Amino acid sequence: MFVDRAEINIVSGKGGNGAVTFRREPFVPEGGPDGGDGGNGGSVIFEADNNLRTLMDFKYKRVYKAESGQDGMRRKRFGKKGQDLIIHVPVGTLIIDKETGLLMKDMKNPGDRLVAAKGGKGGKGNVHFKNSVRQAPNFAEAGALAKERTVILELKLIADVGLLGFPNVGKSTLLSVATSAKPKIANYHFTTIDPNLGVVNIHDKSFVMADIAGIIEGAHMGFGLGIRFLKHIERTKMLIHVIDVSGSEGRNPIEDYKKINAELEQYDPSLLKKPQIIAANKIDLVEDEEALNAFMDFMEKEGRDVFPISAATRQGVEELLNETLNRIENYIPPEEDEIELFDFEKDEYDADYKKLEAFVAEDGAYELTGGQLLKIFRSTNFTDVGSMRYLYRYIVNKGGIDMLKELGLQEGDTVRIEDYEFEYYDD
Predict the structure, then answer these.
(1) Is 130 within any annotated ligand binding site?
(2) Are residues 109 and 207 in the same domain?
(3) Is 365 assigned a ligand-binding role in the annotation?
(4) CATH code, 217
(5) Going by fewer Cβ within 10 Å, which terminus of the chain is more open, N or C?
(6) Residue range 230-288, pLDDT digits in tens
(7) Is 283 known to sit in a ligand binding site?
(8) What is the DSSP string of 71-118?
(9) How far apart are CA 95 and CA 112, in angstroms?
(10) How far is it, in rounded angstroms, from Cα 295 to Cα 277?
(11) Are 260 and 230 in contact (CB under 8 A)?
(12) Do the annotations mark residue 311 as ligand-binding?
């Protein structure tokens, strides 16, 4: 089964907490702090793997978690860093942030990597909070929380050549004789319901050819195999449009040509700009020479190169492949439109992390929030005066009290940070 789309949850590792420990030495207040730092949490990293062809593995497993960092230890020993989680995906996979809908990375080259969820930073041990006034800090820094997000994985095959055409026109047969691929072939519609790839070896050179499932009218709206087919031809360098010119199934080859190209245009007009050559297949079964001549005249007016072939008997296939190789070797990539990418700089670990915000909650309480504030808050030892002062000084220095007063804060009002509440008194 070919799976080309999946939705998974990824969770990085939480940073280890800094340690609150003290040396045991005479003539040193409480022995002096010696708490080590917590280890950083592991990150979730995607890597493009050329040995994978489908997203099947993600059909059965939906949650992926990296290892958390170890807490700091006494004697200034650091906690162990959490192990990164490497997730292998096929080359050609798009990684999309579900919440924003923005592309995080196009994994189009073997070995491409993306740190999709950065591990939480380890917290500092209490040794870092000693100063001339605070000789024995009874608090340390909590490790940063894990990063969790939902990502969409969407696979678009990477092939040099895409085979176009209605069902049962001979695309699978052409692929089988041109490459070592062994697609399922039978005389009924929609034999191919999954993409097939094969490597064409010719003149000591090679290129990848993809026979992708046939389309019907309305494919651009999702009818039939619809967009599942169309999206896989976006990366190809050129197209071979396979058309049954024998009329063996009552089809009109000119109308087939028009309908397929109309679907391309309505899905993405840029697909019509790709080099497209015509493989006039089943030439050995043609009985109506007049209809064939009309088709050839029409293609000449369209400016298309036509190669009469019989995939079943291999007639004309070598000439078709020679021209295909020539087109690929002279291929000039078009300029790609710029698209908005996911901005990691605006992720919560970066730009907005130190931002402090104040607002009035629905119940009338005054709330403070912010990434760095919450990290300090979670590190606070509420039984230690020095730790409480450290938290309060951070709020004051960042303008938190002034922001709350602008919102109407007065003595006796409730101030809330996460689930912790206290009454405000102006000293």
Answers:
(1) no
(2) no
(3) no
(4) 3.40.50.300
(5) C
(6) 777 888 999 999 999 998 777 899 999 999 898 888 888 888 889 999 999 999 999 88
(7) yes
(8) PPBTTTBPPPPPPPEEEEEETTEEEEETTT--EEEEE-STT-EEEEEP
(9) 12
(10) 14
(11) no
(12) yes
